[in-house]
Amino acid sequence: MAESMRTRALKVSFGKNEAVRGVDMDIEPRSVTAIIGPSGCGKTTFLRALNRMHDHTPAARVSGSVFLGEEDIYANGINPVELRTRVGMVFQRPNPFPTMSIRGNITFAPKRHGLARGRELDELVERVLRQAALWDEVKDRLDHSATSLSGGQQQRLCIARALAVRPGVLLMDEPASALDPTATQKIEELIYELKKEYTIVIVTHNMQQAARVSDYTAFFYIGDLVEFGETDAVFTNPREEQTEAYITGRFG
Amino acid sequence: MTGATPEAARTTSRGSVGEPEVTSKVLSPGSPPSRRFDLARHLGERWFRYATGAMALIVVGLVLLVLQQLWVGSRLAWSEWGLSFITRTAWNPVTGEFGALPFIVGTLLTSMMALAIALPVSLGIAILLTEYAPRLLRDPLIFVVELLAAVPSVVYGLWGIFVLAPLMQQRLMPAIAATPLGRLPVFGEPGTGYTLFTASLILAIMIIPIIASLSREALISVPRDQKEAALALGATRWEATRFAVLASARAGIFSAAVLGLGRALGETMATTMTIGNRVNLTFDYFESGYSMTAIITNELREAASEIHIHSLVAIGLILFILSFVLNTIGRLILMRTRMRGA
Amino acid sequence: MTGVGMPLRLRARLFRDAVLVALCVVALACAVVPLVWVLWDVVAVGVANLSLEFLTSLPAPPTIGGGGWANAIVGSVVVVGLAAAIGIPVGVGTGIYMSEYGANPLGRSARFLSEVMAGLPSIVAGVVAYGVIVVTMGQFSALSGGIALSLLFIPIVAITTQEALQMIPKDQREASFALGVSEAPTTLRVILPAAMGNVLTGVMIATARVVGETAPLLFTVFNSRYWMEGLDRPTATIPVNIYSYAISPFEHWHEQAWTGAFVLVTMVLTLNVAARTLWARRARFMAGR
User: Fold this and answer.
1) What pLDDT is stored for residue B101 in this prediction?
2) Which string of b and e fits B55-90 if b means at least 16 CB within 10 Å?
3) Which chain A residues are within 8 Å of B241, Cβ to Cβ?
4) C146 near C83, Cβ under 8 Å?
5) Are residues B269 and B123 in the same domain?
6) Residue A251 pLDDT exceeds 80
7) Of B37, B62, B83, which residue constitutes the final position of a domain?
8) Closest by CA position to C236, among listed C153, C102, C145, C165
9) Is residue B105 predicted with pLDDT exceeding 80?
10) Domain boundaries in chain A?
């Protein structure tokens, strides 16, 4: 189920401003890849290119290629709607649908995709909520509004919601940046669990977090992939001077 | 000028403590003489405030004047029939029998049909403009839709008389009568072109711009991340719009509909020129009818007896109350949703 | 994931997506087609009969033909001018008060009642002006029409003025205070000029709105076949003429109604486009081009 991803000469620009300038990167299945770098370095832009979210930004232009398994997701005939059932995404700010219940948030996508119905849906809801370590907290109030949850719970609901589509890859855009330390720790534990089944790419501005949760780390600087390797190596023995400067806190 | 400044310092309260002090010091004789005649300083702080306040008072007074006029001008009708004036169906200037029901029904039927037609159309426009239209086309299209609101009512009426009514009579109404819709009890035998339905269609055209622009505002105020959440789960653009955007914008869209309905109620010329102007308590859209605005338009100038005039003004009062209630509800919801959005 | 291998369900969903976008385009057409249709008829029929005579001479009896609406054009300008002369000071003043001193019962009621008045059915304005002025004076008059229209003019200007003033950033006000300028000159010399573009836009929109109003004029200015004899006398106006010519039984008058509609629509659209251009230019200027 977990799939690998590769980018080749991936460029994203907004008008004259080139936010990602030719990135080659191989993302291993069943692992956590962290993307770090100072703000404005193109981390989020890169991430959003991996599930074609830029299709909905009129000014954005993407070139180069992104492979999911062996398929180029920017090739003709690839539909972004179907692609996103295979590459899920969790956003920086928890964004549950406020008009839907907790259950409704989770069943929204599986219903549309025809993944489950009736009893299967209930099982699915329980399974993904358990995976997201949220089940015990919400099992008695599945029909309450999703906005009745705390910020950390909302974010775990968003993760559960993404898992319900059974993606092979899960993209996370600073998923814990809006949360308190306790909630952050829960999300990190969750990521550690999830990598057994999923390929995870996480953007973070928190270097400790990257060091704690990831197997691979990519350092971006002004749209370029400066350094990419196993997390231990990048943090203990960076090859590039810029990387070292950043992780030792000399800039960024 | 120097004499005026300390006084100014005293009167500019508004919670500012330090500034007036500074004012009097800086503007004391040492400051260079102003060559231009400074109206504000001449009047002094207090007078400026009072002058604008007087204008605000005028606005308040005008609304009171409107209410007083409508009440005094209609009191004979109320003392004669009381509230039953609203439910009476007679309208006979010769015998002096008056009642508002046929006009209230005509107004409600046409406005609600207009809303039923305009709401889906306006929503479609709003969705297209916020979610789908390319950026280059967006502003011109918004302008075009707003132009619909700029065309005067009487011009729509003119067009209604000479273009739409004949078209309704010859083509549209027979066509609708021939479809399954024609079997609905609200559509009878097509006859004349001046009908409740013709008036409804014109009203629909006229209220599309306001409903579309308020709905668009409601759609825009839905946070972008909700739509992205849906898209990231593999929703199609329509599904994302329907479940993430429309669902969150419901209150705003509702207030747009209410305000549109309020606009339709008070619309005068286009209705008067197309509704047929027949005192006729009917629920058949293919018949001629009357509206509250039309009866006032047609008869106030020529009304001879006092009770006739008072009955017309009473209809004006009912119209004012109806549109006041709708506008207030619409505004309140709008204000609440705007505050939540901010 | 390619087109051919796409699951049926996904294809059905994408199809529905496309259908609904198409429906939205149809909805837009439902608005644009009537607009183009109305404007087309107004221009096609209206221009065909537009002549110098129409713009410069008095009406002729329907049986003779010819004649013009010069008195109505003058009448409209005068009545709308009166509405603006009353409406601009009251509306702008109210707007300033609501924005600058409005945190009190008077300010709040003025705001609420402006919105009530903005939703006032125009015919009610006519009924009130009829009761207050026509009945009192014992005759129809241009003045009563101007007052009726000012009831519609004032709230639009008051609301747009208030909103325009509040769009001016707070630091402008503070910058002026910091220079030792007190409140009234700050408002008149700093805030109002900065907001002037939008205030003017509001005035133009209000003018465009009332110039086409008919219902409030029917029983205030009434009508006349002659040149206006004074503000206390009835007068012809373009919108009322369109109405009475349209419902007359004469073919020749029907044509003139269309020509009148062309003149009126030209005035209204010019005002609208001007207001819009002004607003856009102002926005560009404030944004530093």
Assistant:
1) 96
2) bbbbbbebbeebeebbeebbebbbebbeeebeebee
3) none
4) yes
5) yes
6) no
7) B83
8) C145
9) yes
10) 5-99+167-247
B244 contact A CB<8A: yes
- Note whether B177 and B324 are same-domain residues: yes
Contact by Cβ (8 Å): C264, C69: no
Last residue of a domain, which of B59, B83, B107? B83
Which CATH number goes with the domain that contains B109? 1.10.3720.10
Span B23-58, pLDDT tens digits: 444 444 444 445 455 655 555 667 788 899 999 999
Region for residue A52 given its phi and psi (left: phi exceeds 0; alpha: psi -120 to 50; beta: otherwise): left
Distance CA B148, CA B229 (A): 36
Co-location of B175 and B287 in the same domain:
yes
And the tokens for A95? 């964004």
Contacts of C188 in chain B (CB under 8 A): 39-40, 48
Instruction: Note the CATH number of domain A5-99+167-247.
Output: 3.40.50.300
Our count of domains for chain B comes to 2
Q: Least CB-CB distance to A78: which of C1, C9, C10?
A: C1
Residue-wise pLDDT for B108-148, tens only, equals 999 999 999 999 999 999 999 998 888 889 989 998 998 99
- Provide CB contacts within 8 A for B318, sequence distance 6+: B86, B100, B104, B292
Name the token pair of A250. Answer: 């000399």
Statement to judge: residues B167 and B60 lie in one domain: no
Sign of CA dihedral A205, A209, A210, A211: positive
B250 contacts chain A (CB < 8 A):
yes
List the chains bordering chain A where 3 or more Cβ pairs fall under 8 Å: B, C
Q: Which domain holds residue B31?
A: 4-83
Residues of A with CB under 8 A from a CB of C: 71, 77-79, 81-83, 112-114
Of the candidates C128, C73, C85, C78, the one whose C-alpha atom is nearest the C-alpha of residue C231 is C78
Question: How far apart, in whole angstroms, are the C-alpha atoms of residue B273 and residue B157?
Answer: 5
Q: Rounded distance, CA C208 to CA B200, Å?
A: 24
Label residue B342 by pLDDT band (50, 70, 90): very low
- Chain B residues in contact with C239 by the CB 8 A cut-off are 152, 154, 269
Mutate to test the interface with A, among B222, B224, B227, B233 (most CBs of A within 10 A): B233
Question: Would the CB atoms of B52 and C34 count as touching at under 8 Å?
Answer: no
> In chain C, how many H helices and how many E strands?
13, 0
Pair B101, B205 in one domain: yes
> Does B234 contact A109 at a Cβ distance shorter than 8 Å?
yes
Q: Looking at the structure, tell me whether residues B174 and B74 fall in a common domain.
A: no
Helix (H) or strand (E) holding B98: strand B97-98
ipTM score here?
0.92
Nearest to B239 among A88, A112, A162 (CB): A112
Q: Are residues B28 and B112 in the same domain?
A: no
Lowest mean pLDDT among A71-75, B292-296, C212-216, C224-228: C224-228
Same-domain check for residues B24 and B122: no
The answer to whether B228 contacts A112, with C-beta atoms less than 8 Å apart, is no
Which of B233, B247, B250 is closest, CB to CB, to A109?
B233
Write the CB contacts of C241 (distance below 8 Å, at least 6 apart in sequence): C69, C72, C223, C256, C257, C260
- Smallest CA–CA distance, residue B244 to chain A, in Å, is 6
CB contact under 8 A, A83 and C2: no
Whether B235 sits inside 8 A of A96 (CB atoms) is no
Residue C59 tokens read as 């009406």
Write out the two tokens for B298. 């047609």
pLDDT for B21: 41
Q: How far is A132 from chain C (nearest CA, A)?
A: 27
C203 to chain A, minimum CA–CA distance in Å?
Answer: 36
